[in-house]
Design a protein that fits this description.
single chain; about 180 residues; alpha+beta; elongated
Length: about 180
């Protein structure tokens, strides 16, 4: 190799090194920027679909901008909903295949609890709570939603039972 060829070879190596370094720094910078952008995703809703493109879950905001997550069965029926009410209380609700409400679990103004309903009329029949003032509470309601029996335990553990008529008037109560 003569002097001109050696100089051309060295300059070619230097240019290739520079180009390689530039490419690595550009790709590394883009990867870092891409990772930063992927840590936060902003959207007004998300849908989870199965391999056939059918919606199986969604995360959206309701009309009052409260978050709500829905879970759907293979036929597109809503079977579960997680949401927050206007007071910020969270709940999880379950529905049968005909979209009839069956059960709720969460908190409300009474306390933390669960409610059960038959799929025939979707009205609470049994509610079980730990109230905000730490009492245990079980309510049995009729098909009209009238509380007919209430069992409570005070914070000290003392029980109380109240029975009511079909209008909610007390007919019997015991300590």
């Amino acid at each position: 190799m003569n002097r001109l060829q050696r100089t051309a070879f060295i300059l070619s190596c230097l240019a290739a090194s520079f180009a390689g370094s530039l490419a690595v720094s550009l790709f590394t910078g883009r990867a870092e920027a891409s990772q930063e952008k992927e840590t936060v995703v902003k959207a007004q809703g998300f849908e989870l679909v199965d391999k056939n493109g059918k919606k199986r879950a969604s995360l959206t905001l309701d009309q009052d901008a409260r978050p709500m997550m829905r879970f759907l069965d293979g036929d597109g029926n809503v079977r579960g909903v997680m949401r927050m009410d206007k007071d910020g209380n969270a709940s999880l609700n379950f529905y049968d295949k005909d979209d009839k409400w069956l059960l709720w679990l969460g908190e409300n103004n009474t306390g933390t609890g669960l409610g059960l309903a038959p799929p025939t009329d979707e009205k609470n029949r049994i509610n079980v709570y730990v109230t905000k003032d730490e009492k245990g509470l079980i309510e049995c309601l009729d098909k009209e939603g009238v509380r007919r029996a209430t069992l409570t335990t005070a914070a000290d553990g003392s029980p109380s039972l109240t029975l009511t008529d079909d209008k909610g008037a007390k007919v019997w109560g015991g300590p």
